[in-house]
């Protein structure tokens, strides 16, 4: 399954913890946006790890599934921010 994950977390320590989890599973494409492709079992594990993080009262995290049939319609322009890979489309 393909996912788009975005967040708005104000506390630096909580944000670093969340980013650490997300970087283990996904590719960073903006400072607070990640894209991932994973099987459902891995998704469940990632959700458990994310759920263990205590977000602040005003913090937000969204995980949007992208159906496979919509994958070809995704338009990416610019460079990803991943330290491991830079994708330019």
Explain this structure to me?
This protein is of the alpha+beta class and 89 residues long. It has one domain (2-73): Alpha-Beta Plaits (2-Layer Sandwich). Helices cover 29% and strands 26% of the residues. It is built from 2 helices and 4 strands. It has helices spanning 12-25, 40-51, and strands at 2-8, 27-30, 33-37, 60-66. It starts with a strand and ends in a 23-residue tail after the last strand.
Query: What's the count of strands?
Result: 4
Oligomeric state as shown: single chain
- Total tally of structural domains: 1
User: Pairing-aware structural class of the strands and helices?
Assistant: alpha+beta
Radius of gyration: 13 Å
CATH architecture: 2-Layer Sandwich
Order of helices and strands: EHEEHE
Biggest sheet: strands side by side, in what order?
2-3-1-4
Number of helices: 2
Highest CATH level, the class: Alpha Beta
- Cα separation of the termini: 21 Å
What distinguishing features does this structure have?
single chain; 89 residues; alpha+beta; Alpha-Beta Plaits; four-stranded antiparallel sheet; 4 strands; disordered C terminus
What is the fold's blueprint, element by element?
Blueprint: E1 2-8, H1 12-25, E2 27-30, E3 33-37, H2 40-51, E4 60-66
Antiparallel strand pairs: 1-3, 1-4, 2-3
Task: Summarize this structure briefly.
This protein has 89 residues and is an alpha+beta fold.
């Amino acid at each position: 399954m393909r996912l788009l994950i975005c967040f708005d977390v104000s506390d630096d320590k909580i944000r670093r913890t969340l980013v650490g989890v997300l970087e283990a599973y996904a590719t960073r494409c903006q400072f607070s946006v990640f894209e991932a492709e994973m099987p459902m079992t891995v998704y469940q594990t990632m959700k458990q790890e994310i759920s263990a993080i205590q977000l602040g009262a005003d913090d937000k995290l969204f995980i949007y599934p992208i159906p496979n049939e919509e994958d070809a319609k995704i338009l990416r322009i610019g460079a990803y921010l991943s330290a491991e890979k830079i994708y330019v489309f």
